[in-house]
Design goal:
The protein has 163 residues and is of the alpha/beta class. It has one domain: Rossmann fold, CATH 3.40.50.620. It has six helices and five strands. Helix 1 links the parallel strand 1 and strand 2. Helix 2 packs antiparallel against helix 6. It is globular, with a radius of gyration of 15 Å. The termini are far apart. Bound molecules: 4'-phosphopantetheine. The site of 4'-phosphopantetheine (PNS) has 10 residues, from strand 1 and helix 4.
Length: 163
Amino acid sequence: MRTVLYPGSFDPLTNGHLDLIERACRLFDHVIVGVAVNAEKHPPFFSRKERMKLIAESCQHLPNVEVVSFQGLLVDAIAEYEANAILRGLRAFSDFEYELQMALMNRSLSEECETIFLMPTPNNSFVSSSIVKEVALLHGDFVQYVPEAIACAMRKKLKRMEK
Ligand code: PNS
C-alpha cells in the first residue's frame, strides 16, 4: 500500500489544497492530510480541531483520505504514519526555494524521506490560505477560493469576530 502524507497549516484549506489532495488520491492508495501545529503562525484563524473537522468534511467524497495532526518534526510524522513520501504543492517559482530547502532538509534528517510535488490547476495557482484570509477579513468575496464547508465556517467565524 502506497501512502503519502500531505503536511501543511491548512488555515484554512483552500481549493488549491483540495485540488492537490484529489490528484494525490489518484496516485496513492492512502492520502494522509497532516495538520501541523505550527508555532510561527499563532494565533490561527481556525483551531487545530476545527481545521481537521473542516478538512474531513471537504474530503468526504474521497474514501482514501485520512486527516491527522502532528506536532514536531515532519520526518517523525512520516515515520509514525509509515508514509512513503511527503506531498507538497508547487504553485509558482516563488514556492520553489522554500520547498527545495524543506525537501532537502527532510531528506537530510531522514535519508529515505522523499518529497513529491504536484501542481494545482492554473485557476488555483494564485490561491493561498493567507491571501484568502486577508480577502475575507477585508470583506472581499473569498467564497470562490475555498470548499463550501470552509466558506460556511469562515462566514460564521467572521460574524462572531465582528460582534
Ligand atoms: O502550509 P505550510 O505552512 O506551508 O506548511 C509548512 C509545514 C507545516 C509543512 C512545515 O512548516 C513543517 O514541515 N513543519 C514541521 C516542522 C518541521 O519538520 N520542520 C523542519 C522541516 S524543513
